Structures are given as structure tokens and as C-alpha cells.
């Protein structure tokens, strides 16, 4: 009895516990749909990071996508030629065919730092994920720039530091006043006795 696979719907299937990548060629309509989705992501993105995900296990990719989604980012896998078409339609002059390996695109939709930070932290834990470069402020950036972006504190961390620096002098002032009042109470209680 084996498993019956409809080759029209199948993109990949498992053989003896291993993933067998037998990708069917995409139709022109499917390619147009992919390009439109990429265009939408490119339009909405605040930053992009290009990664080589070759060798990552399915569970690792799932974990990466989950972390990215929590921070308002998307992880998209696309053919380099389709990605090039989407970039051209958006007027961005960049050739993704220069990137090596199986390229995954991480789109930062909510802020500029999260895609760099998450991909860098994940690549430190899992050496199979390799950062290749990215886009920031509509300019191509190299691996070093992505790492520099990853080292910048997030918006929440910066706000916490600002609040801490504002509240620190105020709390010190309140403690000084309490100390003076406490000293006055001790002196008055000593005089009373």
C-alpha cells in the first residue's frame, strides 16, 4: 500500500524519514503570485536580511520563523530570479544571483533592527544559518553591517534605559529627603526623652 502523492500538488515529500526535494516547476501564474507577494514584502519592509539556510533542519527553520514572527518579521524562501524580478519592479538595483547558497529573505516589517538581531543571534547558536547581507534604508549592506545593526539595542531596551536614567536622579532626591526627615525625627525623639 504506499502513500499516493499527487505530483501537481506536491512540492516535496519524505522518503524513509529524509526529505526528498523533488520540486515541480512552477507555472507562470504561480510565479506571478510569488513575485506579487515578494513585491508586497519589499514595499512594507523596513529592513531585509539575506541568509543561507542550507543544511538547517525543518525544526530549526520553524523555530527561526516563530522568533521572527514574534518581532513582526517574515522569513520567505524564493528563487533568486523571482526575487530579482520583484526588486526590479520596485526600482531597486540589486542582483541576488550573486548570493551563494539557498537564499532565505528575512523582512523586518515593524522595525529595522529585529531582522538583523534575530538572524545574528540564531546564527550564533546554529552555524548552519549564514548571514549573507541585507538591505537597510534601501541600500545594500554587507555582512559586517548586518552584525553592527544586530548589536544596536532594540527600541524597548533604549526606552528602558531612558526611563531608568530619568528615574534614577528622582529616586535619589526622594531618598535624600527621606534621610533628612528621618534624621529630624531622630533628633526630635532624642530631645523629647
What does this structure look like?
- This protein has 193 residues and is an alpha+beta fold.
- The protein has two domains: 41-152, Ribosomal protein L10, N-terminal RNA-binding domain (Alpha-Beta Plaits, 2-Layer Sandwich); 154-193.
- The chain is built from six helices and seven strands.
- The protein has helices spanning 28-44, 58-70, 80-89, 114-125, 143-151, 155-192; strands spanning 13-15, 18-20, 47-52, 73-77, 103-108, 130-136, 139-141.
Write a brief caption for the model.
The protein is built from six helices and seven strands; from the N terminus they run E-E-H-E-H-E-H-E-H-E-E-H-H. The chain has 193 residues and is α+β, with helices and mostly antiparallel strands. The chain folds into two domains: 112 residues, Alpha-Beta Plaits; 40 residues.
SSE map:
Elements: E1 13-15, E2 18-20, H1 28-44, E3 47-52, H2 58-70, E4 73-77, H3 80-89, E5 103-108, H4 114-125, E6 130-136, E7 139-141, H5 143-151, H6 155-192
Antiparallel strand pairs: 1-2, 3-5, 3-6, 4-5, 6-7
Q: Could you name the CATH class of the largest domain?
A: Alpha Beta
Write down how many β-strands occur, each being a DSSP E stretch of 2 or more residues.
Answer: 7
What would you say the CATH architecture of the largest domain is?
2-Layer Sandwich
Parts with pLDDT < 50 across at least 5 consecutive residues: 1-22
Strand order of the largest sheet: 4-5-3-6-7
Distance between the termini: 99 Å
Give the mean pLDDT: 80
**Radius of gyration from CA coordinates:** 26 Å
Number of helices: 6
